[in-house]
Structures are given as C-alpha cells and as structure tokens.
Amino acid sequence: MTTATDTGVTIVTTLRDEVTCRVHVAGQGPPLVFLHGAMGLAWDPFLDSLTQHYTVYAPEHPGTSPGDPHAIDAVDDLWELVLHYYDLLDGLGLDSPVVVGHSFGGMMAAEIAATDPKRVGKLVLISPVGLWRDDIPVAQFMQMAPEEVAEIAFADPGGEIAQQFFALPEDETAQQDVMIQNIWAQACTGKFIWPLPDKGLRKRLYRITAPTLIVWGNEDKLAPPQYAEEFAKRITGARVERLDGAAHLPQVEQQASTSRLVLEFLNG
Amino acid sequence: MKVSMFHLMPHRELPADFEQKYKSVWVDPPFPELADAERVGQYYNWTLDELAYAAKKGLDGICVNEHHQNAYGFMPGPNLMGAALARETNGTDVALVQMGSTLPTTQPPIRVAEEYGMLDCISGGRLVAGMPLGSPMDANMIYGIAPIEQRERYYEAHDLILKAWQSREMFAWNGKYNQLGKVNLWPRPIQKPHPPVWVPGLGSYSTWDFSAKHDHCYCYLSYFGAAAAETTMKGFWDHAAEYGLKENPYRAGFLQLVAVSETDARAEQDYAEHIEYFYNKCLHIPPHYFGPPGHQDYNSLEKGIRSGRTGKLLEELGKLKQYRYKDFVDKQFVMAGSPSTVREQLREAARKLRVGNMMVLLHIGSMPHDLTLKNIDLFADEVMPHITDVWDDEPWENEWWPERLRGPRQQFTPTRG
Description:
CATH superfamily of chain B: Luciferase-like domain
Strand content of chain A: 15-25%
Structural class of chain B: alpha/beta
Largest interface: A-B, 22 and 22 residues
Order of helices and strands of chain B: EHHHEHEHEHHEEEHEHEHHHHEHEH
Largest sheet of chain A: 8 strands, mixed
CATH topology of chain A: Rossmann fold
Number of helices of chain B: 15
CATH class of chain A: Alpha Beta
CATH class of chain B: Alpha Beta
CATH architecture of chain A: 3-Layer(aba) Sandwich
CATH topology of chain B: TIM Barrel
Strand order of the largest sheet of chain B: 1-2-3-4-7-8-9-11
Number of strands of chain A: 8
Number of strands of chain B: 11
Helix content of chain B: 40-55%
Oligomer: heterodimer
C-alpha cells in the first residue's frame, strides 16, 4: 500500500475509556473525517489530495491498530460502534465536520449522519455498503479467496493499480504483518456486517440532513452501482456521481477524478 | 481403552468428475444435481444400520456429528440420528457419543441441554455429550454467525447448558447472546451431575485451554492420522500439565481412519478406491473456507502465520489430490491392512498420543454397506480384543465415560445388517 505523506497520530479514548483510538491527522483547513473500509486504513494519494484543503482525521477501526487487537472486544454491536464515533468526534472537538466514508466506512458515516444529523456538516459516501436488494446481492467478499475479491473490486484486476494494491512486502516478517493485519481488520469490521451488510440503515437514512455526495464505480461487482440510487432516493437532495474505469475502490483506481469530484462538491 | 465407531454419513456415489466440476464438497454442492432424496434415505438407513451393528459387535461407543450443506457428512441434526440409535441399542451397554450438537448455532442453547437430556433418558444414561464449537463452514458461512463472536457464543452456551442441567432452582439467564427469563429444564439427564462432556478440536490453543479449564475430555478430530497428531497431542498434554491435571489418558480422545481386511494386499483391493474417494472428493474444499476472518482468535491467527503452521496446513490440504492409497497408508492417515497390521499401529498410536478414548472411522467415503460390515466384523473380532487393555497397566478410571458403562462389556450375539 502507498504511504504518501507522513501523518501525525492523535489518540482519543472512547467507550468508557476501553478503546484507545488512533487517529491519523494531516493537512490544513476545516476538519474532514475519513472512515476506512473493511480491509483497514491505508493512507493513500486520495487522502493526500484532501489534505490540500482540509485537515484530514482518519481513525483506525477498533481492533485494527497494531498491537491493540482486543480493542474490538469493547464494542458489542453496531449501536456501540455508533457511540464510539460520537465519543471520537467529541474527543477530537469536531463540530459537524465533513465525513467521508468508503465501503464499510461509508455505512458507518451514514449511520452517524442518520442517527445524529447535526454531527455531520457534509457527507461523502464512496461505494458504501449497508443496503440490500435480493436481485443485486452485495458480494460476501470476506468469504472469498483474494483473487476472487480482486476480480470484483477492481475494474482492471490485472492492471498495475490492482497489482500494487495487493502487493506484499518482500521481507518475511513484514509480509506476515500485512497478512495478519488484513485478516484481523476484516474480523473486526465483519463483526458489524456479517453475514450480510444490511443492519437496518434503510430505515434510518431519511434522517440525514447533511448535503450528500454519493460516488460509485460503474464496474463495481462487489456492491453493484445501482445501490447509488438506493442511497440517493432515501437521502434528501443527495447527488450521485458515477465513474468509468472504477469498481469498488474509485478513490484508488480513478483517484484523480474521485478527488476532483469530492473537492468540487465540498468546496461548492 | 474405550473404542467407538464414528460415522460421517457421506454421499457414497459422487460422480467421478466431482472435484473437477464442482467448487467444493461443502457449502456449495448443488443437491438437486448431485443427490436423489430416495437414495439419500438409503444412506441414512445404512448409516444407522452400520452404527447399530458396531454397537452389537462390541464397540464401546457409536459417534455421530453435525455438518451442514456438506456432501461428505450431512447429519444436520445429530440428535435425530442419536434418538434412532438410542432406541435401537436399548438393552445394550454401548455409549451414545454425540459429537455433537454445535453450541453457537443452536438457538437457544438450552435446546442442546434438552435434547441431550432426552437422549440420556431414552438410552438409560448412556450419553456422552459432545460440545463442538462448529466449523467455519457450518457456523460462519452457512449459519451466519460472525466469526469473531463464535467462541464467545460457545463459552456462553456451554456455561448455560451446564447450569441448566445442574441447577435445582429455576433461574434467569442474562447473557450477552441469550436472555432467558425462566430456565427450568425438562427433562434433566439421568447422569449426575451431568453427562460426560467431550470437546472436539482441531489443535487450537484456545480449545486445549477450554477443555483443561473445565476438566472435559479433549478430542482431536483429525483426518490426517496418528503420526501427524503427535505435536498437537503433546501440546494438549503440556497444557494439561500446566493446569496441574493428572495425565489420565481418558481425558483425551482421537479419531483415526481404519480399514481392516484379511491381509495387507487384500486391504488395498478392498479399500483403495474408497479411501482415495474420501481424500480426493470428500475433502475437496477451497483452502480459504477454513479461515473466514475472525474464526481464529487473534493469538491463534498470529501464532499460525508466524510459525508457518497455517501455510503448511494449507499446503498439505493442497497435496491431498496427488496422494494415492499407498501415500495415505504410509503417512498413516489411514491404518489399513490385516488385523495384525492395524492392531499394532493402533496400540502404538494410543500409547504415543496418550489417548484413552479412541474413535475409529470404519465407514470411509464411498464404502458400500457390505464392505462396511466386513470392516466392522474384522475390527470387532480381530482388532478390538487386542487393544482394549492398552491402559490397563495404569491405575486410571475413565471419568469421561457414562458411569454405568465403565465395567466390562456384556456379550451379545449380533445379527448382520
């Protein structure tokens, strides 16, 4: 994974001080919170692009911080995970920041914005999960082999960007670190979306008041792009942008276009 | 030593190109394409007949287990089989070893306590209560339990079941996963304080720890034979010693595939195709099915990857399809041959692994009914009598066997089939 900019790390404790949350902080400007997907946080050029205009806060999901795998035990269910984010925003002293979420992080961003609308100034959902339609089931990617996931998550699974995304370090210990982190990140996020990522968000989305942008890759086979409209029709005034040449990770596969769309929306 | 016959209840007639044509034997195999319900009825009845026959031939126990959407073993309700067997074997002193109802996926878990209670009552106190955690395929992929919660659910279900069996008063259970306002179990098992508990495992540290902590019998259920089990069983015994537990061999169980014929050469003729069917078709499972994220707790995950054990295990699984009969026998995945070949290997394995509760898989893969009865006959007549005394030179009591059945076996005159 690309590490573009050295980020600072801030620690915030949440949930009766049982979770020590590491938050990567970089950039200048108004606050923007980024919630990562099921595979864990990777600081990448997309986040770099946001730091040009915003102070980006990127928390690590409980249990995914190196050396602290059992933090997840403090979070029993989805409701507690939402409370964890309320505590986190309070701890960081952020009053209605921009919240950007990708995939599982998109679902959580929507949960925060729906359950306590004033906490979120503007909302950006990049291929979020959280809804379900029987005719276009969301892929059960945690139960697939890595090569099967690559096929559905990338528009060009054989391309350089996908290859780089899945590349493992050469050093054996570092390689083991990455394997353990990847698996454990999915264990900790999977707790809230197993076996299907439909936990009732459909019934809560109407409460969102933040101006909302929904970004989707046209070739997403993990969460098919029709879900963009499913989100949009439940969130008043939401705007949908779709991208060609991208699947489930438009911010990786079409980074420049995604950054441009997001920044135009936020600055507009 | 107590010796029990294990049965998986496999599909016995999968097509020759099964492993080329289908993704997996477990989770995905399409029933309408691969099976016929009338024929499946025959498999179930053969399975019951074979276990009942083993009971009458003098095996100490008969074992069934629980799997779902699995062509190599489809007894989704092990207690349905157990009920039929309890009734069929009444009047004998065979143990019903239910290996068993999967705790985290039985809701509410007192259902396990109730059904085991029924089996113990029907059988006159002959139940061994297996308490499996559940495989990742069954519990996570099919029954929808979030992998990271599986163990915690298991621990809670275990505590609830044990309390429900023993509490004289009605109680409320305010658990994390189960809230039951009025627990007042009907029926209670005959065996007091409760039937012996066996915990099946695959070598994880957490399961050794759990078995040792609760003083249950730990059973290593492996398809890879005694030779490959030494490290695992040593790990278990080291762990038990750390807990200050006595080295009573009956606190450990082990599953071994066994195929007996008149001579070693005849065994190959009889069993080679069925053993190859088992390892090539019945274990045709994509490696990643074994590891949905969170099924292993963090410590086991980290230890497995850093020690290379996880990689090695997956590599071994990958090699199975290249192996032939000779490999399976040489590696002792299966103990196959004449009675003398098998009895020597089993005695040695029991001593080496320090196992007092031996389970033998006498029906393997595609074995037809008649051949299975032959295997049971030869095992019961020519192998059993030479191995049951293996621990008699040590002063241990099998505390994990139904109390009424700990004495010498009664004699029966069995009728075949």
